[in-house]
């Protein structure tokens, strides 16, 4: 029986060191640790796919926390079922879960449901916060490049017969922004002249 570990952090600025130390202490050999820096929501996680291909019947797949492996109950159960089909047990170190036991399998499924519930609550709170900020007048996204003064200037230059490329150069704006300032289709029709 081999022990294979998968460790992950969400961003490049985060460290894998704590997770790596934990799985090495658990007895995983350094060359059996698969690691990556990717979002858990990213379904294309190459190190996870590689670790899943690497494990064999009778192996033990080790992670430090459930959220390092999956972000939804569906995703987690898909991975657990894939491991089960290969006759590989899953051990979660921080939550003392081992799918080699019936209790461990039941606990894992319950935790997955609660984790998904928590994610949904977080998403709802975020959407409520965004809605409140919009209602309070907060604007999201980049500031518009073409202010009212710039739009007036663009229209004046076009009325004087300047070409779009010359307007772009004079204002430092993109072709799309210049056309939007000219009124979209109206600007395109003017360009054709």
From TrEMBL:
<keyword id="KW-0230">DNA invertase</keyword>
<keyword id="KW-0233">DNA recombination</keyword>
<feature type="domain" description="Resolvase/invertase-type recombinase catalytic">
    <location>
        <begin position="2"/>
        <end position="137"/>
    </location>
</feature>
<dbReference type="Pfam" id="PF00239">
    <property type="entry name" value="Resolvase"/>
</dbReference>
<dbReference type="InterPro" id="IPR006118">
    <property type="entry name" value="Recombinase_CS"/>
</dbReference>
<dbReference type="GO" id="GO:0015074">
    <property type="term" value="P:DNA integration"/>
</dbReference>
<dbReference type="GO" id="GO:0003677">
    <property type="term" value="F:DNA binding"/>
</dbReference>
<dbReference type="GO" id="GO:0000150">
    <property type="term" value="F:DNA strand exchange activity"/>
</dbReference>
<dbReference type="InterPro" id="IPR050639">
    <property type="entry name" value="SSR_resolvase"/>
</dbReference>
<dbReference type="InterPro" id="IPR006119">
    <property type="entry name" value="Resolv_N"/>
</dbReference>
<keyword id="KW-0238">DNA-binding</keyword>
<dbReference type="Pfam" id="PF02796">
    <property type="entry name" value="HTH_7"/>
</dbReference>
<feature type="active site" description="O-(5'-phospho-DNA)-serine intermediate">
    <location>
        <position position="10"/>
    </location>
</feature>
<protein>
    <submittedName>
        <fullName>Recombinase family protein</fullName>
    </submittedName>
</protein>
<keyword id="KW-0229">DNA integration</keyword>
<dbReference type="InterPro" id="IPR006120">
    <property type="entry name" value="Resolvase_HTH_dom"/>
</dbReference>
<dbReference type="InterPro" id="IPR009057">
    <property type="entry name" value="Homeodomain-like_sf"/>
</dbReference>
<dbReference type="InterPro" id="IPR036162">
    <property type="entry name" value="Resolvase-like_N_sf"/>
</dbReference>
<comment type="similarity">
    <text>Belongs to the site-specific recombinase resolvase family.</text>
</comment>
